[in-house]
Amino acid sequence: MLVWLEEWLVSYPGAVLVVSHDRAFLDHTATGILEIDAKTHRLRSFAGNYSDYMEQKNAEMARHWQQYSDQQDEIVRLTNAARHMRGLAKFRKGGKADTGDKFAKGFFANRGLETVRRAKQIEQRVERLQTVDHIDKPKAPWEMKIEFSDIPETGRDVIALEHLSIGYGENILLEDLNQVLRYGQRVALIGPNGSGKTTLLRTITGSVSLLAGQLRIGSNVQLGYMAQEQENLDPQLNALQTIQKSAYFPETEARSFLSKFLFKGDDVFTPTGSLSYGERSRLMLARLVATGCNLLLLDEPINHLDIPARSRFEEALSSFEGTVMAVVHDRYFIEGFATHIWEVQGKGLMAYPKG
Predict the structure, then answer these.
(1) pLDDT in tens, 55-87
(2) Is pLDDT at 43 greater than 90 in this prediction?
(3) How far apart are CA 312 and CA 283, in angstroms?
(4) Which residues pair with 225 in a beta bridge?
(5) How far is 240 from 256, CA to CA, in rounded Å?
(6) Rounded to whole angstroms, how far apart are CA atoms 191 and 200?
(7) From start to end of the chain, where are the E strands?
(8) Are 221 and 183 in contact (CB under 8 A)?
(9) DSSP E strands: which ranges in 11-139?
(10) Separation between Cα atoms, residue 153 and residue 165, nearest integer Å
């Protein structure tokens, strides 16, 4: 459906204004990007698609770093020069100005005053560079800081499906599935909406009973599940209580941990039921990290995350040493994280390495 929409928009003769976090979609359809700066709240325009926008932003950041670095080097150079000149102008006993010859004494004293004057001029230049002409140190946008801790290893076969059929009652969604999820694989589970992807994850977690066949979980597997509808969060608990219930944390450490997921100050006391979908997604990610899972089952994990948060989550997954199966439609995400594809075809499941 995304591909169809892209083709339709490209051929549309009028103007289009789109709000989207799908980077592949923006690459295929956009001819310009409007960015709302999170700090200044101002709107900026960039020509081209998303990749063009990122190229311009990266070049802009590189220029900013170079200008900042050059200014810091200049401040150090001028400060050393001023210090050297003041050292030259300092009266020294036995020096050229320390003599009974009045002419020599006056001559070298005047040279000392001139050197001090030049030193003051340089110091004024330094002060201006540090105030009026100061270039701020570049800062990356405030993003989530996700770091998966060390996790226990599992057996080679993490999940084994043997002639498995899943669904609800007489409604069979997928049948006769024979696949093995192996340790360290990152599988993107794809297929049409309503084809059984979420039901497969729920069957693996045990919340939905299998209809036929076998489903074996490997040795030492600690499973973490991120539900698409976020129903496995207690709406009565706040973020602090949710984390402390999932893993032992003193309050100070729990609040510090939650700050990495952008829950600052009193935000940790907001009931989960009052959080936005994006905030709940961040809280669910925090809980997965806190519990030390070595198998992640993620059902549309980035649906409610903005682009910086999606990028940060992708970086974290790349360093995650466990096994991942994710239902996802974001093609950038699939390209960046997946090692294998499990694709629903009819009522079957085809598995192949990502090409």
Answers:
(1) 998 898 899 999 999 999 999 999 998 888 777
(2) yes
(3) 15
(4) 297
(5) 10
(6) 12
(7) 32-36, 43-47, 157-168, 171-182, 186-190, 212-217, 223-226, 295-299, 323-327, 340-345, 348-353
(8) no
(9) 32-36, 43-47
(10) 29
